[in-house]
Design a protein that fits this description.
- The complex is a heterotrimer of chains A (325), B (487) and C (315).
- Chain A has 325 residues and is an all-alpha fold.
- Chain A has a single domain, classed as ABC transporter involved in vitamin B12 uptake, BtuC, CATH 1.10.3470.
- Chain A is 74% helix and 0% strand.
- Chain A is built from 15 helices and no strands.
- Chain A is globular and about 55 Å long.
- Chain B folds into two domains: 248 residues, Rossmann fold; 219 residues, P-loop containing nucleotide triphosphate hydrolases (Rossmann fold, 3-Layer(aba) Sandwich).
- In chain B, helix 3 packs across helix 4, helix 4 crosses helix 5 and helix 14 runs parallel beside helix 15.
- In chain B, 51% of the residues are buried.
- Chain C is mainly alpha-helical and 315 residues long.
- Chain C has one domain: ABC transporter involved in vitamin B12 uptake, BtuC, CATH 1.10.3470.
- Chain C contains 14 helices and two strands; from the N terminus they run αααααααββααααααα.
- Classes of the chains: A mainly alpha (325), B alpha/beta (487), C mainly alpha (315).
- Chains A and C meet through helix 7, helix 13 and helix 15 of A and helix 6, helix 12 and helix 14 of C.
Chain lengths: 325, 487, 315
């Protein structure tokens, strides 16, 4: 217990510098994205075009949605290691039942969101480590996906295909969708009055309980939101790939965590940023394949690029906060 | 005459124990409307526990609570808020990741719907302006970015904001601990205005002048009981100090003036915030006291000395192995999964080995030796550490340090919540070990313990403000140096 | 009677009971056919889970948030390194094993370096490390001689009276690990840190050094496991370690080690390892599809952790 020296004279400067550090850190996701874009533009100017972006950001929408899903649990100081296989499960449901028996498909997807809500309640009530619970659930989702779709195949519902092949004028659809996702989630989590409570539960749960709020409810809501955005991510993914495979989402667990962290989120303390998370997801989507292709780096190193970006950004973050100390 | 005032809240025979420690021992307490009650007592006297009960965050193990004359059977935080009772806790309850306005929203379920952000910001800004006219805080500031003083200002102001719930009683637990004299004055004059307008307030403070000047009535607590309660005008500083410290039972401890010849230098340390040349010096065979109010840098200095023993630090010189006896047993001392013997052995593992392996036999021998020597009351040292009462747990922590090879023993207010019998046993042991040449640095919040020391450094605001030899050691001197607001 | 009761109080006993029940259920289904062979097969496969499980157990015991997510990538890379160094020649087996060990240990050390230098939670540190290791492995392993030397392959498949030699060695190793955990300064320090890192520091435990050692040890065990796996399955490949992320954590949890840290036991890792392998065998024998198998495995992990309950982070 570090004793806090009383009588500290409040000074203006520390707060100013803390705010500056926060701003710098807030800009970091945008800076990383800009850096990647500049590199691409420099390597291949033609890629910076309507068509180029459509191509390069092909998978950005599902990645962004999965990242947002992960962000909700992280806001409550938990982690979801099953989001990848969950996205795969949703994909399999989308490519089969949602097309062939829409009512059943919708019910199953709603039910899976309910499962997420129940997991949140279980984790809160039994005080379980979310890592282990979601690790176990990742088996369950994967198994269910294989049961629904033993072999790669199926086909996305036509309405979904037409939504995701939408070509708006001037702005490529992935960018438009990313903006929309960021705006909606930012409003919901950062601007509404209940969003404050959700973030507060990650910041100082004891204070929230003292103010009379239910921590069970906040956890359930956060997990349900994760489920909801996981469903959206899986559907978007199938809308792009048109067919499904039980393993299609496996990489999304790691990608989504990396996206949240890249976007300025922190594992504890309820410090997350929806806009940052979407930017982080876009950075990962761009860095993962187009940039490396243009740099003539073999695809073997794509995963490493994600890891390296993550480490570099974290190192930059440490540098910033150390200098401001 | 005081009874004529309608009660806001009344507790009868409130009891609470944490494990073996009795935090509250049948307390009767009430607050009337339009009254400011000052609550004073040493650390661990039970003030905070009592206030947690009034605020609904802790359930009493015994006794009743009534609000505005009605018995409350299932009292809770939510119920307290509904009834207009609020508390500013000693440990900060802001969410560091949220803005000032957002933190305000957390305490007001009514702040919702369209435009809530603006309303929350207006609400807190207005209250801050009212209490601290030159606060310099923006409603958009993130709480974690604010200095500790400003955070405390926000928290206090937030407790007085008003939306749907009524506001009758505000508990202020050390509200000025992080404020400078100017803002503290602003706060206290606001409290007087609030009370004059019919509100009620409980003021807990270690700054006795604040309590004497602002409270209508003062309640003094000691060892989980109310030991004095009277109109503020009936108290003066000396009577308060006497009531808090129990001066009547206070006599100079046996410690016959030990011959202390200066031994080898063991510790030389200067607090990080010390600006003049004062420093702490401890030699072999000395018992050095660290006094002053809680949290004024004593623990910090002990911790710096502790880490300087393993890694060189500027301004601190340590010449022998160090062990620390934690005062906050739960967070700094106890390994909850382990037996008493294992808890004692952890500091001495290297000596308990035979070959590569720790010898269970030697571990048991060490434990048995200290069980007898320090009188740990248990049938079996292999029982879990939590099978012991608080005092005996503390003895095990002493055994851990004294059973080690450490020549310097740091004691971080280790007697908190320990019964008097245990205390006396440990005092004897400490003196005995000092005669054998060990050095003790002893931070304590209980003044009578300082009688065991050869000399005492008094701390204030992270600095050493006085160095008192054992002949000049009096309670008045220490309180004068550490309170500093009077005299 | 009392001995039975004390046995029942051991947290690891349930994993063995589970393994036994699953085994009995399977042989009841087959009418006793293949009972011995099943044990042999279970022992051979459980070895690999046990080795990484012990490493993961030490890491998890360090306290909440400590977990090594880089094990699968580590195993994959070490298996490739071992096969490359051995180069198909029996003379190089020991050198190859040492290379795998060193490779794993280096990965563990880097993990801790990231945790310490970037002050990031172990989860994200080991995660980002695993990204990079995975790529190194893919690019390094391409076009590589990945067959083990015949002597090594035979050794990893060697059985004495129906008991795999590797399993015997692994038992010796786990006895050593159990001694290290309960009777050595290292193990005591790990347990102390896991219960209360601050109290451990104040009791004179070298917190930084012990954490570094633990991550390095876990990495080294991953490395050796990779080499052995490549020998057993007669070849290295990138995905060889994939299942060991979940498996290593699962055996720790099912084996009765506290996820809150500070409480661990080695026998449970064996029990849980056998339980998981036998469970798969049982489901296969019942002719259950891969999907159902996965679902049941997942539900069992969730069920076990729910039953074990989260010990409240003891204050």
């Amino acid at each position: 217990m570090t004793a806090i020296a009383p009588g500290t004279v409040p000074k203006a400067s520390p707060r100013g510098s803390a705010a500056r550090a926060r701003m710098l850190r807030g800009l970091l996701p945008a800076l990383s994205l800009a850096l990647v874009l500049i590199a691409i533009a420099w390597l291949n100017p033609r890629a910076i075009s309507y068509f180029g972006f459509n191509l390069m950001l092909n998978l950005a929408i599902p990645i962004a949605l999965a990242t947002i899903a992960q962000m909700f649990v992280i806001a409550g100081n938990e982690l979801d290691l099953s989001i990848g296989t969950f996205v795969g499960f949703v994909g399999c449901v989308t490519a089969t039942w949602l097309r062939d028996a829409p009512l059943l498909g919708i019910l199953v997807l709603m039910g899976s969101i309910g499962v997420y809500a129940l997991l949140g309640a279980l984790i809160h009530l039994r005080n379980l480590p979310s890592i282990v619970v979601t690790l176990g659930m990742s088996f369950v989702w994967q198994g269910l996906a294989i049961l629904i779709l033993p072999k790669p195949g199926g086909r996305a519902p036509d309405w979904l295909l037409s939504i995701l092949s939408f070509k708006p004028p001037y702005i490529p659809f992935p960018i438009l969708a990313a903006l929309l996702i960021a705006a909606v989630v930012h409003f919901g989590l950062m601007r509404t009055s209940y969003g404050v409570i959700l973030r507060g539960s990650g910041g100082n749960a004891a204070a929230l309980r003292r103010a009379g709020w239910s921590l069970l409810k906040t956890k359930v809501v956060l997990f349900a939101l994760t489920g909801l955005f996981g469903v959206l991510s899986g559907m978007a993914l199938i809308g792009i790939t048109t067919s499904a495979d039980a393993n299609i989402g496996n990489g999304y667990t790691l990608l989504s965590i990396a996206g949240v962290i890249l976007g300025g989120g922190e594992f504890v303390g309820g410090r997350v940023s929806p806009i940052g998370a979407v930017l982080g997801a876009l950075t990962l989507a761009l860095a993962a394949s187009p940039l490396l292709t243009f740099m003539h780096i073999p695809p073997d190193w794509q995963v490493a690029a994600n890891g390296a970006i993550l480490i570099i950004v974290l190192a930059a973050r440490v540098l910033i906060s150390r200098r401001e100390r | 005459m005081l009874q004529a005032i309608a009660d806001i809240v009344r507790l009868n025979g409130a009891e609470k124990h944490f494990g073996a420690v009795r935090a509250l021992n049948g307390v009767d307490f009430h607050v009337g409307a339009g009254e400011c009650v000052g609550l004073v007592g040493h650390n661990g006297a039970g003030k905070s526990t009592l206030m947690h009960m009034v605020a609904g965050t802790l359930r009493p193990d015994g006794g009743q609570i009534a609000v505005r004359g009605n018995q409350e059977a299932s009292y809770s935080v939510a119920r307290a808020l509904e009834l207009g009772i609020r508390c500013v806790f000693q440990e900060l309850s802001l969410c560091p990741n949220l803005s000032v306005a957002e933190n305000t929203r957390i305490n007001h379920p009514a702040l919702t719907g369209f435009g809530w952000r603006r309303r929350a910001a207006d609400l807190i800004r207005a209250k801050l302006d009212e209490i601290f006219p030159d606060h310099g805080i923006s409603a958009d500031d993130i709480a974690g970015d604010l200095s500790i003083g400003r955070r405390q200002m926000v928290e206090v102001a937030r407790a007085f904001t008003l939306t749907r719930e009524p506001l009758h009683l505000v508990i202020l637990d050390e509200p000025t601990s992080s404020l400078d004299a100017h803002t503290a004055g602003q706060l206290l004059s606001f409290v007087r205005r609030f009370v004059a307008a019919g509100g009620s307030c409980i003021l807990i403070s270690h700054v006795l002048g604040e309590v004497l000047q602002n409270a209508d009535r003062i309640v003094v607590m000691r060892d989980g009981k109310v030991v004095a309660a009277d109109a503020a005008s009936a108290f003066d500083r000396d009577r308060l100090v006497a009531a808090m410290g129990g001066a009547e039972g206070h006599h100079k401890a046996a410690a016959e003036a030990r011959k202390t010849e200066p031994g080898a230098l063991r510790v030389r340390a200067r607090p990080a915030r010390q600006q003049d040349g004062k420093e702490l010096v401890a030699r072999a065979g000395e018992i050095i006291g660290l006094a002053g109010l809680a949290g004024h840098g004593q623990t910090d200095l002990l911790l710096s000395i502790f880490s300087a023993a393993s890694r060189a630090r500027t301004g601190i010189e340590v010449t022998a192995p160090v062990a620390l006896v934690a005062g906050d047993r739960q967070s700094d001392g106890i390994f909850s999964q382990w037996s008493i013997a294992q808890n004692i052995g952890i500091r001495s593992l290297a000596r308990l080995r035979s070959g590569l392996l720790i010898s269970p036999q030697r571990e048991a021998e060490l434990a048995e030796f200290w069980k007898k020597k320090i009188g740990i009351r248990t049938p079996d040292m292999n029982n879990n550490i939590y099978s012991l009462s608080g005092g005996n747990q503390q003895k095990a922590l002493f055994a851990r340090a004294l059973g080690s090879d450490a020549e310097i023993v740091l004691m971080d207010d280790p007697m908190r919540g320990v019964d008097i019998g245990t205390k006396l046993e440990v005092y004897d042991l400490v003196r005995e070990e000092a005669v054998k040449g060990r050095t003790f640095l002893w931070y304590t919040t209980e003044t009578e313990e300082l009688d065991n020391c050869d000399h005492v450094y008094v701390f204030k605001n992270g600095r050493i403000v006085a160095n008192l030899g054992r002949d000049e050691l009096t309670e008045e001197k220490i309180i004068q140096s550490s309170f500093g607001d009077a005299a | 009677m009392t001995s039975v009761r004390t046995l029942l109080e051991k947290p690891w006993i349930w994993s063995f009971v589970g393994a036994l029940v699953v085994w009995l259920a399977t042989i009841a289904f087959t009418g006793g056919y293949g009972a011995g062979g099943m044990v042999t097969a279970a022992l051979s496969l459980a070895v690999f889970t046990v080795i990484v499980g012990v490493g993961q157990m030490f890491v998890i015991t360090l306290g909440p948030g400590n977990v090594d997510l880089s094990l699968p990538a580590n195993i994959g890379l070490a298996s490739a390194v071992a096969m490359k160094v051995m180069g198909g020649s029996d003379a190089m087996i020991v050198v190859g094993l040492l290379a795998a060990l060193a490779c794993g240990a280096a990965i563990g050390a880097i993990n801790y370096l990231l945790i310490w230098a970037l002050r990031i939670p172990p989860i994200i540190a080991t995660l980002s490390a695993s990204f990079i290791i995975q790529s190194v492995d893919i690019s390094y392993g391409r076009g590589l001689q990945i067959k083990p030397p015949p002597g090594f392959a035979d050794f990893t498949n060697w059985q004495v009276l129906g008991i795999p030699a590797l399993a015997m060695l692994a038992v010796v190793f786990t006895i050593g690990a159990a001694l290290a955990l309960q009777r050595m300064i290292y193990g005591r320090s790990v347990l102390a840190i896991g219960q209360n890192i601050r109290a451990a520091w104040l009791a004179g435990v070298h917190v930084g050094r012990i954490r570094f050692l633990t991550y390095t040890l876990c990495g080294a065990l991953g490395g050796i496991d990779g080499a052995l796996l490549a020998g057993y399955f007669r070849g290295a490949n990138v995905d060889i370690g994939n299942e060991y992320l979940l498996a290593s954590i699962a055996v720790v949890v099912i084996g009765g080690t506290s996820v809150a840290g500070g409480k661990a036991n080695v026998p449970g890792v064996w029990g849980a390892g056998l339980f998981l392998v036998l469970l798969l065998t049982m489901l296969n024998t019942f002719g259950v599809s891969a999907g159902v198998r996965l679902v049941l495995t997942g539900l069992i992990i969730v069920g076990v952790i729910t039953a074990a309950g989260g010990e409240k982070a003891v204050r």
